[in-house]
Amino acid sequence: MKIVGQQIRLAGSDLSNHLACRHLTTLELQVVRGERAAPDWADPDLAIILERGDRHEKDYLAHLAAQGLTVENLGHIDHKEEARLLAETLALMDRGAQAIAQGALSDGGWFGRPDVLRRVATPSKRWKWSYEVVDTKLARETKATTILQLSLYSELLAKIQGTVPEFLWVVPPGEGFAGEKYRVSEYAAYSRFVMKRLRGAVGEGASKETYPEPVEHCNVCRWFKECDARRRADDHLSLVAGIRRQQRDQFEEWNAETMAKLAALPIPLRERPKHGSKAGYEKVQKQARVQVEGRTEKKLKHEPILPVAEGMGFCRLPEPSVGDMFVDLEGDPFVGENGLQYLFGFAVLDVRGELKYEKRWALNREEEKKGFEWMVDEIMQRREANQKMHVYHFGGYEPGALKRLMGMYATREDEIDRMLRAGVLVDLHQAFKQGVRASVEEYSLKKVEAFYGFERKTPLEASRAAMRYVEHRLELGWGDEELPKPIREAMEGYNADDCLSTAKLRDWLEEERKKLEEDGASVPRFADRDEEASEELDERQKRVAELTEELTTGMPADSKERSKEQQAQWLLAQLLDWHRREDKATYWEGYRLAELNDEDLLEDRAGLAGLRLLEQVLVERKIPVDRYTFEKQETEARVAKDLYCKREKFGSVVAIDPVKRTIDVKKTRKTAELHPTAVYVWERPFNVKEHSEALFRIGEWVAANGIDTAGRYRAGRDLLLRKRPRLARGEVLEPHTGEEPKSTVCRIASALKDSVFAIQGPPGAGKTFTGARMICELVKDGKKIGITALSHKVIRKLLEEVTDAAKEQEQSGVRCMQRSDTEEPSEDIAMARRNDEAWAALESGKANVSGGTSWLWSPEAAFEAVDMLFIDEAGQMGLADVLAVSQAAKSLVLIGDPQQLERPLKGSHPDGAEKSALEHLLGERKTISGDIGFLLPETWRLHPRVCEFTSGFFYEGRLASREFLRNRVLEGHAWLNGAGLWIVPVAHEGSRNSSAEEVEVVARIVEGLLKPEVKWFYGAGNSRRLKEEDILIVAPYNAQVSDLCAGLPKMRIGTVDKFQGQEAPVVIYSLTTSSPEEAPRGMEFLYSLNRLNVATSRAMTTVVLVGSPKLFEPECRTPRQMQLANAFCGYLEMAVTRNPASI
């Protein structure tokens, strides 16, 4: 940032800073204008990074020259000579220079100096060639700030050459200088938005007053001391440990805007908070009181949280044992895609009764795997010797890292499972936080050490410097450098201090527990759960381990070094235990939920908190159905779901009214008189033995015969190999001239020979319509057809479409059957209640089209029961399940769309094993390649203006709108005339899963749409008045759905999941959350590209997005987060903005 003439000239670094903190922009602007001095602060690592960066860039330029490219280097021209730099760069581009190093780009307001501009063959409006930006970044993991800067350079480059570059490139260190390419369009809208916001923040009319709200960037900011001092001077509510922004806003509304005022607020609260429970706000008030008391009395203060709740706080502590371990892991989340755990450490009592520290370093993937195995083996050896020992840690990091490493490396899975089943891992952070209220601003290990008098041997400043050294080099690529002794000793000292401090904390908590018991409180201890799996399961695991070893022996550990066949065989080996990993994760989730308190369950979607008994509805056979009221919250509780309390089944949901917030629960005899204040939803894993055995049979065959050999399971193996469909009679995948999509796919399916064919169907493209007509054509050819999907409902829908297609074509001989325990037969669809009944019907010819879930098609008795198996919603069905059912057919047809709703995974799986079948085939693309499948190219639903957004952001520009859809428009409305996208920005603060402000605006929009003068044209010259059912109102959270239903009882309202497969002339999407930081379930859920795609693509004519402007301003730290925000910002660019005050 600097002043050029009378204008503020901005650069890429200013973008990054503004993204991190708006107050930072204000401070830097004041420095540039001479209104304040910059703090005396220097990045201790900057010199090293600059030196290594220059060396990496020179090496890359030498690499380009060695490839025969002419490199024009303008690095000798100083930054101050901008005019010369810009002129020489443009002259080189005009000449068509192959590579330009250290050139310059500017449009007057922005300036950038990219590392390299490389010529590409794509013509631009200015030349017969064009350029793309290349950046030589040291870090192996590309961060959002890098993409943001390169997006700025690409924007400037587009203005010069008249054509937007297709890609931008990042070249990290590594052999061959393999660049990572990023599609410019997937980041450009977000980058433009941040650029526009920054330009506004430094403009003449910009507000000069911003407040130093605490953000993540504070940890590395040169202004931290100044901002922290101001917050303390203001006695800011952010200083209260654990307080949320929503709670701060509420307390400010109650005139308790400082910590001192909050501490003095009378308890119990007189008013009910707008969001959340009273208990949660009272807990925050008590925390503020203790902090203020400690500050006033100038001493440490703590008190027990009473009453003691079973399973919480001190009740988490098992009986101490001499074999107990105290563990701590050090990791860097920015190494590669999954981070790297680089130091594994633990402390344990030795024979003299003194704590001994042991550790293992890991500076690369192979060492990380060995370090993980070493840690697990150490735990299990001690557990075998002493069944009463436990592993203590502080916070959720260690269990999460162990589970992640288990999934990544597919090793020590049973050992981790046994630990989690038995409750071997003990989180002292939860024990402290739930049991003790202390005068600290955060409940971190470093902050609470003062209470038990722990003194660190390694100064924190030395350990932080060592940590920066290690993590910078890991991110830059460690190479052959040896870890310097001072750095090693400082990091080991830091890690040892954490382990020893954890041990001291456990002892202190035991002393506090003893005091409670002496005061008469009952404090039951944690008792281990059963950790042993069944003998049958143990035997199967041995078989799987042996087969996995056989399939992967001799394969390179790095996936980049494997051949296509090796990768497919490796992936098959990882899928053998897929179902077991999913089941284990389900049990682990049950253990996690059982340990949550009422406040945690209020925030967890599986939870249902604030329960209060209203009445007994009825009693049947001495088992009551009780009605409870509950707090407003996100919950997965649904009719027929089982509810649990502390690992015991509490009852089943009979009815739930989200508007009145009541739930009817059919209790068990054991819980008839029990009335807990919080419960949770948990589903026991299904029996998937047949699925696992099907995968095992395929694995055995491949081990004996090879992955790419003619013979059994060919279609499934082709799927793993991502093979081009094998077609008979010389047929080709490419559409014939003038051939309709339906005819193309029918022709291909008829020629399919022991192979797999995939069809991707974007919204409204008619994938069910197309699939049904394919099936009818195949039945004409005498083929037996199977249908499967994740649900009976989806299967039934496709079967009904098949019968409709047969009638439409006057085709006889289509005999449909469904295998289901719950669906009812119809005139056209027979019903089988047992698997063998369905198989017999296919064999006898009683049925030639049979539908059932994967439990019908995975048993060995179903081997090649049909000629072709159709997998509907294959974008949601896991690759493991599709492979398991593939044995039932000679060929497979996959129909679905991975760009729409995903199937949530529970387990942690090796890379590639977590994908759905269609995701596996698509690879890194959003749409399927024409050499392995077919994209239905036209939508029969979306108006061209809606389709432009859907196609551009979700389908790589490959989806078109049928011409007749242009006639579907609205007329007669005050502002929603025609068709397309609108946005209504509604400012609000502190809303998480519900927003009264948005409910009110949505109600006004609906009122306007239902006026008699508003007409919807559903065809040329054909119109009618809009009805309630013509408007879909969508929200991401159940709590907002409840509020919308209460205010608009006649409307179609639901979450995104409810409306997949449906359509309406108008869609209103209420985003609900005030800011990205307040979004329940995180950014990945609220900004999900799949969910935004489904929500907006339900609309035939009009989409109205209602939401907080702050949702378009997330602080993105990764390219993935930028991709998520990009679609929102793209919508903002394409939409018409309407002021809510004018509605």
Q: Can you describe this structure?
A:
The chain is α/β, with parallel strands linked by helices. The protein has six domains: 2-205, Lambda Exonuclease, Chain A; 236-299; 313-519, Nucleotidyltransferase, domain 5 (2-Layer Sandwich), CATH 3.30.420; 607-681, Thrombin, subunit H; 731-936, Rossmann fold; 944-1142, Rossmann fold, CATH 3.40.50. 40% of the residues lie in helices and 17% in strands. The chain has 37 helices and 43 strands. The strands form ten sheets. An eight-stranded parallel sheet has the order 28-27-29-26-30-31-25-32, sandwiched between helices. A seven-stranded antiparallel sheet has the order 18-24-21-22-23-20-19. It starts with a strand and ends in a 6-residue tail after the last strand. The model has no long low-confidence stretch (mean pLDDT 92).
Topology summary:
Elements: E1 2-4, E2 7-9, H1 12-20, H2 22-32, H3 46-66, E3 71-73, H4 82-95, E4 99-101, E5 105-106, E6 111-112, E7 116-120, E8 130-135, H5 144-161, E9 167-170, E10 180-183, H6 188-201, H7 224-233, H8 245-253, H9 259-263, H10 278-297, E11 302-304, E12 325-332, E13 340-349, E14 355-361, H11 365-385, E15 391-393, H12 397-409, H13 413-422, E16 425-427, H14 428-435, E17 436-438, H15 445-448, H16 460-476, H17 485-518, H18 535-552, H19 564-575, H20 578-594, H21 598-603, E18 607-609, E19 612-620, E20 623-629, E21 642-645, E22 648-657, E23 662-667, E24 678-681, H22 689-705, H23 714-721, H24 741-751, E25 756-760, H25 767-780, E26 785-788, H26 792-808, E27 816-819, E28 829-832, H27 835-844, E29 849-851, H28 854-857, E30 866-872, H29 879-886, E31 889-896, H30 917-922, E32 933-935, E33 938-939, H31 944-954, E34 960-961, E35 969-971, E36 980-985, H32 996-1009, E37 1015-1019, E38 1022-1025, E39 1031-1034, H33 1038-1047, E40 1052-1054, H34 1056-1059, E41 1064-1070, H35 1082-1086, H36 1089-1096, E42 1099-1107, H37 1119-1134, E43 1136-1137
